[in-house]
Amino acid sequence: MARPRNNPGDLAELPTELRTDRPKGDQIREILENLTRSLAVGTVLPSERVLAERFGVARMTVRQEVDRVVAEGLAARRPGGGTFVAEPRPSRMLASSFTQDMINRGITPGAKVLEHRVGAADEDLARELEEPIGTPVLHLNRLRTANGSPMAIERTALSLHRYPGLDDIDFTEKSLYTELSTRYGVQLGMVSASIVAAPPSPGDAELLEIDSTTPCLIITSAPRTATDQVIEFGRSIYRSDRYDITVAYRAT
């Protein structure tokens, strides 16, 4: 029987004391990890104060381990609502469509178009797209969701010289890569990307419904077609507390 989602995890399930032959922080983290795996999604975990008092440790020690469990995606924080068991976070292959990847995992993908405009490529963007300066470009920014929950803000630019008419498509419900494949015969080839961890801007944090201190993954990429043409140049931000990026490579 599922536990009430708004009740903290039962203290009866926790050890009454910590062992003396192992670091206290490691033990607390294992206890928290086990709790998140045994309780229903949405169940509130015991507070930092309660855990610190139960195990006789500093509250900062507990907070550090809670931070690690949140970073692992096993728990999440809700402003004013404590820490709770998180939904399992999806993992995405870097060289794949967000839409198809979510569908493959039984998750409903969604998108809210934040910006859809045509502009001229400046020197830097023209270099990234390998097009002449002044080439008309579609700037497409979307808030991506999984089962209605904000997951990422994808920002990309595509050459309208290479993909004429792309700016006429409403990408609220359509997959960018499905349209590129069906309309323009695009076949994904090599993907190179830079991935760094960084906090979101205040605006991005509000859109992603996270605290401005929550680590995020900033991904800059310029995927190519099977014939080595640049498809797009993107710089996107993903919630690292809800999302994993998987990179596959061949060792040589």
UniProtKB/TrEMBL annotation:
Keyword Translocase: no
Keyword set includes DNA-binding: yes
Gene3D superfamilies per record: Chorismate lyase-like, Winged helix-like DNA-binding domain superfamily/Winged helix DNA-binding domain
One Pfam family from the record: UTRA
Domain HTH gntR-type: 22-88
Regions crossing the membrane: none
Source superkingdom: Bacteria
Region (Disordered), start-end ranges: 1-23
Keywords recorded for this protein, A-Z: DNA-binding, Transcription, Transcription regulation
InterPro entries: Bact_HTH_transcr_reg, Chorismate_lyase_/UTRA_dom_sf, Tscrpt_reg_HTH_GntR, UTRA, WH-like_DNA-bd_sf, WH_DNA-bd_sf
The name this protein goes by in its record: GntR family transcriptional regulator
